[in-house]
C-alpha cells in the first residue's frame, strides 16, 4: 500500500472514531475542547491537502472523464457546489504561493478564511511586496480576531499601493459610490422586495440609523411583551426611517454626526477607518470634509489618551476618546460591537469608589454591560499614568520624532528606487 493510500485509510479511521466521540463526551469542558479542536484540525487538513489538490489540477487529472474544468469534476464527485469546489482549488493554488501562510495554517494558527484574505491582498501588482512582508503579516494576524486581521491587511494594502502601483484598485474604490444602487420592486401580491449596494460611508450612515431604530423597537417590544425577530424589527425600522423622513422639514438641521471616522494626523497619516472598522482611503472622505466636525485626541502609546474628566458619567470628549481607543466592545469573548454603539462604563463602579477617567473606563455593548450574568467581572483597571501638560509635551515630542524617522525612511526608499 502506498503512503498516500495509508494516509487516506488512517484519515477515514480517524473520522470514524470522531463520529462516535460525541456520545462519549459527558463533561462540558471535554465537549468544548472537542468542538474547538476538531475545527482547528479541519483547518490543518486544508493545508495538508493543498499540495495534492494543486498538483491534481496542474496535471489536469480531472479531464480524463471529459470534464470541462477541475471545479466541475470536483463538485460532481464530492457532491458540492461548483462555487465550493472553485474555492477549494483557489485556496490550494494560493497556498503554493504563500509559504508562511501555509505553515501557519498547518500549525492551526490561522484559518482558511485567512488564506482568502491574504490571497485578495496578494494581487499581481503587489506580488513582490507581499512575498517580502508575508511573514510579518502572518505573525501580526495570528493573535488577532479575524475582523482585526482584516483591518490590518487592508492597511497593508493601502501602504503597498502608496506608490501608485494599485491605481486600478484605487479607481475601483472611487467608482464604488457611482456603482451604488437600490431596487424596490413590487411583487404580485403587493409586497415589496428591497435589495441594493452602498459604498462604505453611505452604508455606515444607513446602518447606524437602522441599528438605532431597531434597538428602539427592541426596547419597545421588550416592554410590551412582543416577539419579533431581528429581521422583522429591521424591516419595521426601515419603514420608520421613511416615515420620519416624510415628516422632517426640507432644511432641518442634522442632530448629530452621520458617521464617525478615525483619521490620523501627519504622524499617523495611515490611520483612516470608519468607527465600524472599514478601512478607507483618504480620497473616500473628500466629499464629506467641508461639513465635518473635527475632534482631536493625543495618544501616548496604544492605550493612553491624554485627556481627563472628573464627572460621574463618561460624556463629551472623554467618551469619544475612549471610543476611539477601544474601537469595539472590550468583553474578552471577542464581541465585535462597535464602540460607537456600545456603552462607556466604569470597570470599578462609581459606587465602589471607581473614578471616571480613561483608566477606569471601557466600551461594552449593552448586553455585556447591563446583563450581570454576562458582564466581565475579572477586568482590571488600566495602569494609572500622569495626564498633565508635561505628559502631553513628552508625547508630542515622541510623535514628532517618529514622524521624522518615517520621513527619512520614505526618502531613503524613494532614493533607492
TrEMBL record:
Residues 317-370 form the HNH nuclease domain. CDD domains: HNHc (cd00085). Pfam families: DUF222. InterPro entries: DUF222, HNH_nuc. This is Unannotated protein. It comes from freshwater metagenome.
Amino acid at each position: 500500500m502506498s503512503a498516500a493510500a495509508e494516509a487516506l485509510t488512517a484519515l477515514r479511521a480517524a473520522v470514524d472514531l470522531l463520529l462516535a466521540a460525541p456520545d462519549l463526551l459527558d463533561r462540558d469542558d471535554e465537549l468544548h475542547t472537542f468542538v474547538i479542536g476538531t475545527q482547528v484540525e479541519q483547518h490543518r487538513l486544508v493545508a495538508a491537502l493543498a499540495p495534492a489538490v494543486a498538483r491534481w489540477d496542474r496535471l489536469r487529472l480531472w479531464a480524463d472523464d471529459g470534464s470541462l474544468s477541475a471545479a466541475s469534476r470536483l463538485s460532481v464527485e464530492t457532491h458540492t457546489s461548483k462555487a465550493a469546489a472553485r474555492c477549494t482549488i483557489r485556496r490550494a493554488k494560493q497556498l503554493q504561493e504563500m509559504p508562511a501562510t501555509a505553515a501557519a495554517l498547518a500549525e492551526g494558527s490561522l484559518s482558511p478564511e485567512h488564506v482568502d484574505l491574504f490571497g485578495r491582498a496578494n494581487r499581481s501588482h503587489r506580488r513582490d511586496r507581499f512575498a517580502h512582508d508575508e511573514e510579518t503579516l502572518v505573525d501580526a494576524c495570528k493573535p488577532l480576531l479575524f475582523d482585526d486581521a482584516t483591518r490590518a491587511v487592508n492597511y497593508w494594502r493601502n501602504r503597498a499601493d502608496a506608490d501608485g502601483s494599485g491605481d486600478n484598485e484605487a479607481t475601483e474604490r472611487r467608482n464604488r459610490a457611482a456603482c451604488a444602487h437600490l431596487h424596490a420592486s413590487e411583487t404580485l401580491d403587493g409586497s415589496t422586495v428591497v435589495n441594493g449596494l452602498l459604498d462604505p460611508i453611505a452604508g455606515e450612515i444607513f446602518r447606524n440609523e437602522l441599528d438605532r431604530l431597531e434597538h428602539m423597537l427592541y426596547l419597545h417590544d421588550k416592554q410590551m411583551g412582543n416577539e419579533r425577530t431581528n429581521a422583522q424589527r429591521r424591516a419595521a425600522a426601515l419603514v420608520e426611517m421613511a416615515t420620519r423622513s416624510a415628516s422632517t422639514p426640507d432644511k432641518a438641521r442634522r442632530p448629530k454626526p452621520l458617521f464617525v471616522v478615525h483619521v490620523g494626523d501627519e504622524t499617523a497619516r495611515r490611520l483612516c477607518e470608519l468607527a465600524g472598522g472599514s478601512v478607507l482611503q483618504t480620497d473616500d472622505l473628500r466629499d464629506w470634509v467641508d461639513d465635518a466636525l473635527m475632534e482631536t485626541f493625543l495618544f501616548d502609546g496604544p492605550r493612553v489618551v491624554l485627556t481627563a474628566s472628573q464627572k460621574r458619567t463618561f460624556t463629551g470628549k472623554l467618551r469619544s476618546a475612549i471610543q476611539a481607543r477601544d474601537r469595539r466592545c472590550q468583553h474578552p469573548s471577542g464581541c465585535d460591537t462597535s464602540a460607537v454603539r456600545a456603552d462607556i462604563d466604569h470597570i470599578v463602579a462609581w459606587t465602589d469608589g471607581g473614578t471616571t477617567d480613561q483608566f477606569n473606563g471601557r466600551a461594552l455593548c449593552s448586553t455585556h454591560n447591563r446583563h450581570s450574568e454576562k458582564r466581565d467581572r475579572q477586568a482590571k483597571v488600566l495602569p494609572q499614568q500622569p495626564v498633565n501638560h508635561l505628559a502631553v509635551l513628552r508625547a508630542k515630542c515622541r510623535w514628532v520624532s517618529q514622524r521624522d524617522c518615517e520621513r527619512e525612511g520614505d526618502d531613503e526608499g524613494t532614493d533607492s528606487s
